[in-house]
Amino acid sequence: MRTVMKNLVFAFCCILFLSNAAPAAELSLSVAASLKEAINELTAEYGKKKPGITFLKNYGASGALAKQIEQGAPADLFISANREWVDYLQNRKLTDEASRCAFAYNSLVFAGTTKQPVAGMKDLAKLRKIAIGSPGSVPAGEYAMESFKAAGIDKALDGKLVMAKDVREAMKYAELGEVDGAFVYRTDALLLGKQARILFAVPEGLHDRVIYPMALTTTGTGKKEAVEFLRFLQSAEARKVLEKYGFAVK
């Protein structure tokens, strides 16, 4: 009888402990595809400090992510590869304007496997196929199109452009040799295999500066855990991780 009572008391204590334990928090992140490796490392590091948090990460083209959020997809934090798609959500009152800030900066390069001498924008007309992210939703593609027009070569590239769903897909086309080269971010090009290489950097004067703004969504702004994670992403520790992957932080 004494043993039975001990077991009952133990079981009751376990139930009481579990009922009082803080539930694990889930944070949903919608992040530009080019930040994948950096964000994976940052969430892993943060998870060591806050083991009760689970991150649900959605990587993709900034425009596609913004449309998903607009349609009700769960997201507590949005990090875009340009201002346009944060503006898009802000205009629809789906992000917290007060939380908006710059996360990182990047640069645009042309990378590929072509054996033809390609040293600058004027050399692109002699190539067969060039991959870019679809400009309607992929900021890297928008920056590329902006650069073509500024360099006066947009007409010369008619019929040569292969549209990719995001910058990582454009990079894959280049790496596999399915196109002569692709316009990707410098940080993406640093991940290329030995066969592909950076052929030239796009002069920054040809396009707006590549900026990654971030903001809490209206859902995220009500979560203490999301606010704290946003603060971590602005820390010196986070900046070191970004620099490790080739991003600029100012």
From TrEMBL:
Please state where this protein is localized. Cell membrane
- Residues bound to molybdate: S34, S62, A140, V167, Y185
A molecular function (GO) held by this record is: metal ion binding
Q: Which GO terms describe its biological process?
A: molybdate ion transport
* InterPro entries, per the entry: ModA (IPR005950), ModA/WtpA (IPR050682)
Main localization is: membrane
Q: Which GO terms describe its cellular component?
A: plasma membrane
Q: Which domain of life does this protein belong to?
A: Bacteria
Which keywords appear in this protein's UniProt record, sorted alphabetically?
Cell membrane, Membrane, Metal-binding, Molybdenum, Signal, Transport, Tungsten
Question: Signal peptide: which range, if any?
Answer: 1-24
Its job: Involved in the transport of molybdenum into the cell. Part of the binding-protein-dependent transport system ModABCD.
What binding partners and quaternary form does the record give?
A: The complex is composed of two ATP-binding proteins (ModC), two transmembrane proteins (ModB) and a solute-binding protein (ModA).
Its family remark reads: Belongs to the bacterial solute-binding protein ModA family.
Checking NCBIfam families in the record gives: modA
Q: This chain belongs to which protein, by name?
A: Molybdate-binding protein ModA
Task: List the source organism.
Answer: Geobacter sulfurreducens (strain ATCC 51573 / DSM 12127 / PCA)
Protein encoded by which gene: modA
